Amino acid sequence: MSLAVGLLLVLCVAAAAFVLARGRATGLRVGGGAGRQRLNSLPFYHGAYAFLWAVIPALLFLAAWAPIQQALITDAVMSSPAGQALPDFDLARDSILSEARAVASGSSDIAFNPQAQALVPVFQGATTRFSLIGGGFALLLALAGAGWAWSRIGIDLRARAGVEKWLMGLLVAASMIAILTTFGIVLSLLFETMRFFQKVPAADFLFGTSWSPQVAIRADQAGSSGAFGSVPLFWGTVFIGAIIAMIVAIPLGLMSAIFLTQYAHARMRKVLKPLLEILAGVPTVVYGYFAALTVAPLVRDLGLGIGISNASSESALAAGLVMGVMIIPFVSSMADDSIAAVPQAMRDGSLALGATRSETIRKVILPAALPGVVGGVLLAVSRAIGETMIVVMAAGLSANLTANPFNSVTTVTTQIVQLLTGDQEFDSPKTLAAFALGLVLFLVTLVLNLIALRVVRKYREAYE
After folding, report:
1. pLDDT by residue (tens digit) across 149-202?
2. Residues of the chain whose pLDDT is less than 50?
3. Full-model pTM
4. Which candidate among 77, 84, 319, 459 keeps its CA 20 to 30 Å from the CA of 207?
5. For residue 46, which of 130, 152, 142 has the smallest C-alpha distance?
6. CA geometry: angle at 270 spanning 266 and 276, to 5°?
7. Is 16 exposed, middle or buried (0-12, 13-18, 19+ CB in 10 A)?
8. Burial level of 47, CB count in 10 A (0-12/13-18/19+)?
């Protein structure tokens, strides 16, 4: 019996507990008129009470047992005669174990290594044994929980309060998982970044202007020390995502929102707004192809036409323009909702005082809607900073510190993908540099969020 079968049995027990508990609670309604007994909670809550007591403890056990089972299976395999005959070299041993595990689980048909093939029956036997233990114990927990809830079914049982406590606990657990996940991401980045800074000075990384993370195997090879100056990467990120893309997205998005909310007819708005928001659903690889095959050649020809001889077919301008078009819906949608939420009394008061429609928009509506506009711009900037595919296909991979939009540049996220692609050694400065880039990018984004939050709070207090 696998854990999946155990989970199915637990759900069946919980469903049966729900039906039986609800039926028993319904049967407690005896008598008629003034002598009729009234349940403290509806029968549905009695059934839900039994269901939750049957399913939640068993599911928590299965969630905790799954990683424990994998460790027990590995220990059982390693303690077998075939496991003890494995080589001492960690990489070779892990490769053999992975191959045997894949065949035993059915994800692979045959093991090419004879030692891996010999381990397949051992893996299958250990998996069956520990799955039976885990699934059986989870089933016993489900039966025990259902039986305990069944014994409490009665007229005075506050089943609704019990169900709400379970649901509150689940909501708190979900919130804690999100918070702990965030902390785990930060700590993992922090620890790996500390390892990186033990190999590369922090000043060289933060203030260096040369990025060449190739670390040679031999000391006599060229570039064996590597160059980990991150300034070109962060400049490329800012140049493409926060300057060029925002120059395109903010005016077009904001003017689109103003037109749709203040000038467009209701029938036209119903057509144009969904068409504009379709841009947010286009896959980024499609934008990348469009940028590489259509926009980039046009930008290169434009550069050559105005006398820029070194205009490249991979340029920051091409990537920034397409990225700006991609994030227009983020600015437009948030601005649209914020402008539409401005009280009509503010518009009417401005127009009654003699202001024109354009003056009302500039001096009343936009200042009142500024928190939502700032939120949309921040969301668009975050989306642009995290974009990778368009940069790879239209801007290239060259870490150039240049203000010429017709030159090739790269971004932080693009380099992170490049550093972690393929088989990498996680003790190498080249791979650890990806974590340092991620941590610095996270801190920069956090600072931008705090600044935007301060701006939003200030203007929200002024207009509420």
Report:
1. 888 888 888 888 888 988 898 889 888 888 888 888 888 888 888 888 888 888
2. 31-35, 217-218, 221-223, 461
3. 0.69
4. 319
5. 152
6. 125
7. middle
8. buried
